[in-house]
Specification:
The structure holds two protein chains of two kinds. Chain A is an all-alpha fold. Chain A has two domains: 169 residues, no CATH class; 283 residues, ABC transporter involved in vitamin B12 uptake, BtuC, CATH 1.10.3470. Chain A has 21 helices and six strands. In chain A, helix 10 packs across helix 16 and helix 11 packs parallel to helix 13. The longest helix of chain A has 31 residues. By secondary structure, chain B is α/β, with parallel strands linked by helices. In chain B, 38% of the residues lie in helices and 24% in strands. In chain B, helix 3 crosses helix 5. The mean pLDDT of chain B is 92. Classes of the chains: A mainly alpha, B alpha/beta. The interface between A and B is large, with 38 and 46 residues. Bound molecules: adenosine-5'-diphosphate and magnesium ion.
Chain lengths: 521, 257
């Protein structure tokens, strides 16, 4: 009982502090506005007797209180009585903290003190909202009562769900339904046959062809960026996810690809204006060569040292490209404009064309990754990641395989850079800052190290989600970071962790079609 | 009989500590040769000198007459030496059968281009690799567990998988480092039979580090005893059992449990 009270108190205090933090940074009013927009409430309309914004705010606070209470039940897992006590207690503590601050800030605000001169986000409107646009005393008491009640409610509902094992039963029902569908002979046969895989691939391909024609320029651009990040992610996945070499300067190879195409096709600074299709392989080649040159001297380094050296290398490339002294060579801080793009039978690529080209590159990269992964080389990489010392004892030339991983990773990044610069018709030093490396690495980690579907999902989360979160404006980064943290807590191995091919029972997983290993049960 | 492995005055120092001190050893082909000694005697270090992880300060290691000193561990594997580890070191997230397939690395040839293009030769080679891995899985009694992640296997199975992985390179000489550590008497007895099979069925020369005296005496053709890095005795099991220096080195230690 005592530990339970303690845990309730702690939860109440935690939720109280989090709520205050959100209040102090002005998030409470922003999120209320967002809720109001999402519910499509007119600003002047009244909902249940209160104005739309206050109502939205109450929804938000109610959600927080509910969560605080619900959490307590899953923690305690005892009888109904003690569960409700625990939930209500944490709600009460949560409410007390919030009410206290609401009262103080409300009173100060009412007496005309402008708190936003000290805490810039404590605007009068936000303070008023925090006491539900009432007098400080009434507002504070409402907060207290409301949060206590919501805690109680959260506890009751959560208890009901836990006891009735609602989610468990839902999942069970879904599983049995799914199982029954799969047991139908025709469907079972279809799923087991190669035709199923071809159908799935065909549908995805069809989607890739039709989507760019439908969604418009803005989404084509966004999808293209995501696609380029998938490409980068696939490359880094080989280096970090498979071979286990932490490379924090991956952007360097991206930059080399981008600058190769920029300097060889743009009218300034060199006036070379070569054909894109000729420059494309040159960009890949240049990145690959630099990858090999870079890795050879640092081959014997492990872990952190390698990370630091590559990090430095990435920055050096960016700083060189930015340097005034090298402006004649690289275009300097302003970058290179009018980068040339591809043309095919007189068709100058537009946004759709670029998206097709990017999709094609991604497919190629997936193909190469899969085939390498399911070979002697891929196994050697993974064994190096697991235990480099033992890997050497298996007869694996670790140095050679490290160079190979770096080279292939660099080639993918080079291709990505070429496409990026050509599509944007521009490249400059700031396209190649450290954030690119970090984002790509995050995509690999969030998606699931060593897993191709994981990298794709990770790139969508890292580059697609921020576009969707645009709505949140200033809090975009905050919300984004929170989501990433939550995701890593919920799925520590990544969204779609690598699945292992089956060799023993299925027979020759590695000799089956690429792209299907491990997806069969 | 031909010597598979010969150590000549092998010496390895860690700072001031002489971990291996002037050790001479001659392991005849197709024999089971054990190295015993108290903890810290330098047995594992001696293995590391043979397999190229340490370069001995003095002395030479010959494998069928060729010196191994200066070669990298992976090159030594290509020469035909494989080993297991005292503390199991499997590739833990990879499946059992993939672990064995990594062990086959030195016998396969496909390069990156062949892997991407999946040339007929590469496909054939892969198919054979999978078959061979399955056969080894069977040989060590792990049939049916091949698709499990190595780290999810029971302890005894992990030990046997490590041996299967070592066998995958088709070694002429196998170095086992305390293969029965942490096993119960039943499992240990099985291991004795298993080591015999390795030699008799596969014709592999075996160098064995072992703590369990019953196992050592039961399985070895010849035994060398290390103490403080020095070889203090060598001989047949019965000679070793009655050697006063050995008894002294092991005094108070579980010589015959
Ligand atoms: N890498 C190392 N660095 C320093 N000392 C070591 C190292 N490896 C082993 N030693 C020391 O060398 C001695 C022999 O160790 P080891 O060969 O592991 O013994 P054994 O395998 O016979 O139990 C021990 O005293 C050990 O502490
Ligand atoms: Mg040892």
């Amino acid at each position: 009982m005592k530990t339970q009270i303690k845990s309730s108190l702690r939860a109440g205090i935690t939720f109280g502090i989090v709520t205050l933090f959100l209040y102090l940074i002005g998030f409470t009013i922003t999120v209320s506005q967002i809720i109001q927009n999402l519910l499509k409430l007119e600003p002047d309309s009244l909902v249940l007797g209160v104005d739309a914004l206050t109502f939205s705010f109450a929804l938000f606070m109610g959600g927080l209180g509910f969560w605080a209470g619900a959490r307590q039940v899953s923690v305690s897992r005892k009888g109904l009585g003690s569960a409700l006590v625990a939930a209500t207690l944490s709600g009460l503590v949560h409410g007390l903290i919030v009410a206290l601050v609401a009262y103080i800030t409300g009173t100060l605000n009412a007496s005309g003190i402008k708190m936003n001169t000290y805490l810039s986000q404590l605007l009068p409107a936000s303070v008023q909202l925090f006491i539900f646009n009432q007098t400080p005393a009434v507002g504070a008491l409402s907060q207290l009562g409301f949060l206590t009640f919501m805690g109680f409610l959260g506890g009751a509902v959560s208890y009901g769900i836990t006891v009735s094992n609602l989610f468990g039963r839902l999942a069970g029902a879904w599983r049995s339904l799914w199982g029954r569908v799969n047991d139908v002979p025709v469907i079972a046969k279809f799923r087991a046959s190669p035709a199923f895989n071809y159908t799935v691939c065909g549908l995805i391909l069809l989607l890739m062809i039709l989507l760019p024609l439908r969604v418009g320029q803005y989404w084509n651009y966004t999808l293209g960026t995501v696609g380029i990040y998938v490409l980068l992610g696939l490359g880094l996945n080989i280096v970090v996810g498979l071979a286990g070499l932490l490379n924090l300067g991956y952007v360097a190879f991206f930059a080399i690809g981008a600058y190769t195409v920029a300097l060889l096709t743009a009218p300034a600074p060199h006036g070379l204006v070569w054909n894109f299709w000729l420059v494309l392989p040159l960009g890949i080649l240049a990145a690959t060569l630099v990858g090999i040159l870079l890795v050879v001297p640092v081959l014997r380094m492990r872990g952190d040292y390698l990370a630091i050296v590559t990090l430095g290398f990435g920055e050096i490339i960016r700083i060189l490209s930015k340097s005034d002294a090298l402006t004649f060579l690289t275009g300097g801080p302003k970058g290179v404009n009018n980068v040339g793009g591809p043309e095919l039978f007189g068709w100058v690529f537009d946004d759709v064309g670029y998206l097709y080209l990017i999709f094609l590159s991604v497919l190629l990269a997936i193909f190469v990754t899969r085939r390498l992964q399911n070979s002697r080389i891929g196994r050697a990489w993974e064994s190096m990641r697991e235990d480099e010392t033992v890997s050497r004892a298996m007869g694996i030339n670790v140095l050679k395989h490290k160079v190979l991983a770096f080279a292939i990773g660099a080639a993918f990044a080079g291709l990505g850079g070429v496409l990026f610069a050509a599509r944007n018709q521009f490249t400059g030093p700031e396209d190649h800052n450290l954030m690119v490396s970090i984002n790509v690495l995050s995509a690999v980690i969030v998606g699931g190290m060593g897993s191709v579907p994981g990298v794709i999902a990770g790139a969508f989360v890292l580059k697609g989600l921020p576009e969707i979160l645009r709505e949140l404006e200033n809090y975009r980064v905050l919300a984004f970071a929170t989501l990433l943290v939550v995701m890593m807590l919920v799925r520590p191995a990544g969204i779609l962790p690598a699945s292992r091919g089956k060799f023993e029972i299925q027979g020759g997983g590695s000799t089956s079609e690429p792209g299907k290993e491990g997806s069969q049960k | 009989m031909k010597a598979a492995l010969e150590a000549r005055g092998v010496t390895k120092q860690f700072g001031g500590l002489l971990a291996v001190n002037h050790v001479d050893l001659l392991v005849p082909e197709s024999s089971i040769f054990s190295v015993i000694g108290p903890n810290g005697a330098g047995k594992t270090t001696f293995y590391n000198c043979i397999t190229g992880f340490y370069t001995p300060e003095k002395g030479d290691v010959l494998f069928y007459g060729e010196s191994l000193v200066g070669l990298q561990p992976d090159q030594i594997t290509y020469c035909g030496i494989a080993r297991t580890y005292q503390n199991i070191r499997l590739f833990s997230t990879m499946s059992a059968i993939e672990n064995i397939m990594v062990g086959e690395h030195s016998r396969l040839n496909a390069n990156w281009a062949e892997a991407i293009l999946r040339t007929p030769r590469m496909v054939r080679e892969e198919k054979q690799a999978v078959e061979e891995a399955r056969r080894l899985l069977n040989f060590v009694g792990l049939a049916g567990l091949g698709d499990q992640a190595a780290r999810n296997l029971p302890y005894g199975a992990q030990r046997r998988l490590e041996i299967a992985r070592a066998l995958a390179s088709k070694p002429k000489l196998l170095l086992l480092d305390e293969p029965t550590a942490g096993m119960n008497p039943n499992e240990t007895a099985e291991m004795v039979g298993f080591v015999h099979r390795l030699r008799d069925e596969l014709g592999i020369t075996i160098l064995l580090i072992e703590h369990d005296m019953r196992m050592v005496m039961g399985v070895s053709d010849r035994i060398a005893v290390l103490d403080y890095g020095e070889k203090i005795a060598e001989g047949s099991p019965s000679e070793i059992q009655n050697n006063p220096r050995v008894i002294e080195a092991y005094l108070g230690k579980p010589m015959a449990e």
